[in-house]
Design brief:
The chain has 480 residues and is α/β, with parallel strands linked by helices. Helix content is 42%, strand content 15%. It binds pyridoxal-5'-phosphate. The site of pyridoxal-5'-phosphate (PLP) has 16 residues, from helix 11.
Length: 480
């Protein structure tokens, strides 16, 4: 199987060829040229598999070009209960993404049991091990450069720390993350991890990263790479837990379930869409946004209008505070019957006009076929939902998961099994959770006192020259 760009570029590449890449050369995103099919019989055969073996089977369906024996090892190492060990119920750790029943036909799938307590570990742990293998094989080194507002950066650092042939340079907005998030990242003392706190906002950090990446000469000379959410391997890794969630909640493989997904960059829910395209019996994909409702607006009106950064709200579910949904183009490609030329035109139009409107087209009518639904929440809704879930089911949820539960309770069909994806644990956003409950969330012993640990962080101004110098200097000093 080869991978193609959503903008119709002719280059077809294998999985390992695109693994270390972000955008395709024509500015599009990579997708398989044809989705594989998960048959009913296959799904049934997968029912008894451990998570890591299921991961292997699914990666094989997408023709990941790594020898079976190696790939199996990589899956085992990535999805072990030593890594994903923070389930609410320790006994469930071996399931990696356990599903808990809230009430009849309503479930919560834990995706945040990994080292950074957010679902980004699900993809990043696999990516880290894939990177290590491919870099060693190609005898290449890679310097990951990224900007984070919290979850992505820490998941990348925990997945890549101590790995050979790779350094991580992660920019974060100085003083803008929660004390817990800062402690998670800055307390990593590994030699290949460089945390750089820039005096400014997340957008300033991201602008610097963009600027540095646009310098092709520098990029090449210092082997600069990225792990952002448009990376195809991240989306693929996320397909696995949709299948797992399905198998955990059904007895036979013709039954349909719906998923409710808290959404920012359309990465997580894009994986749900891919799983559905492969034949996983998914009824509805229900998308939940916070006040930053670009996607809720699109699915209701057919108008896609990314916001300016000053129009973007800072909310209590900050990992969904996006102005544009960088993975959305993958869905549009399928909606437009995989016509790369049309997609290219549409996104060029978007660049010019700052929006596109497909409400009057045949395609918008097709939207029904893909069975997306959408909803959104406010800060008040999230506070109420966190409280409701604690009172009714006696569990703590975080603000992002609360977005999804709020929308699930509103939109689910009570006779259809509905799985809410849990994307972070409550302690990551404990300030708001405490505000809602008037009671403190208990912490796992591993995270007690994390804020007091020694931190290693470089502070500088958001200026691309400074960052380039820092990277060049560091790499020079590392060469022995
Ligand atoms: C990243 C993130 C999201 C949004 O996921 P997307 O893939 O960007 O849609 C939701 N919740 C949490 C906790 C996150 O870290």
């Amino acid at each position: 199987m080869k991978y193609i760009s959503t903008r119709g570029g002719r280059n077809k590449r294998s999985f390992t060829e695109i693994l270390l890449e972000g955008l395709a050369p024509d500015g599009g995103l990579y997708l398989p040229e044809k989705y594989p099919t998960f048959t009913e019989k296959e799904l049934d055969n997968w029912r008894k598999l451990a998570y890591s073996d299921l991961a292997f089977e699914i990666l094989k369906k997408f023709e990941v070009d790594i020898p079976d024996k190696v790939l199996k090892e990589i899956c085992k190492k990535s999805y072990s209960e030593k890594v994903f060990k923070y389930s609410r119920d320790k006994k469930l750790n071996k399931k990696i993404t356990p599903v808990i029943k809230l009430e009849e036909n309503l479930f919560l799938q834990e995706l945040s049991n990994g080292p950074t307590l957010a679902f980004k570990d699900m993809a990043m742990q696999l990516l880290g091990n894939l990177f290590e293998y491919v870099l060693e094989k190609q005898k290449k080194n890679l310097n990951i450069l990224g900007a984070t507002s919290g979850d992505t950066g820490s998941a990348a650092e925990y997945a890549l720390k101590g790995k050979k042939r790779v350094n991580v340079f992660m920019l974060s907005p100085n003083g803008k993350m929660s004390a817990f998030q800062r402690a998670q990242m800055y307390s990593l003392l590994d030699e290949n991890i460089y945390n750089i706190a820039v005096n400014g906002l997340f957008d300033d950090a991201q602008d610097v990263v963009k600027e540095v990446s646009m310098d092709a000469k520098f990029k090449k000379q210092y082997s600069i790479g990225a792990v952002n959410s448009i990376n195809w391997a991240r989306v693929l890794a996320q397909v696995i837990y949709y299948v797992k969630g399905y198998l955990e909640t059904t007895k036979n493989s013709s039954e349909q379930v719906s998923f409710v997904v808290p959404t920012g960059n359309f990465g997580n829910i894009c994986a749900g869409h891919v799983a559905k395209m492969c034949g996983l019996p998914v009824k509805d994909l229900i998308l939940a946004t916070n006040e930053n409702d670009v996607l809720d607006e699109f699915f209701k009106t057919g108008i896609y209008r990314p916001r300016k950064s000053e129009e973007t709200f800072i909310t209590s579910s900050p990992s969904m505070d996006i102005s544009k949904a960088s993975n959305f183009e993958r869905f549009i490609f399928d909606l437009f019957d995989r016509d790369g030329k049309k997609v290219k035109k549409l996104f060029e139009e978007l660049n010019q006009n700052k929006f596109f409107d497909i409400s009057n087209t045949e395609k918008f009518k097709n939207l029904k076929k893909f069975s997306f639904k959408s909803g959104k929440s406010t800060h008040k809704n999230r506070l109420e939902t966190i409280k409701k879930v604690k009172d009714k089911y006696n569990i703590f949820i975080d603000t992002h998961t609360a977005d999804a539960v709020k929308v699930a309770l509103e939109q689910r069909e009570v006779n259809v099994k509905t799985i809410v994806l849990e994307t972070a644990q409550a302690i990551k956003f404990e300030g708001v959770v405490n505000e809602s409950l008037g009671e403190k969330v208990a912490r796992n012993a591993d995270f007690q006192g994390i804020e007091e640990k020694i931190q290693k962080v470089y502070i500088c101004n958001p200026d691309s020259k400074t960052i380039k110098n820092f990277i060049a200097q560091t790499i020079r000093n590392n060469v022995v």
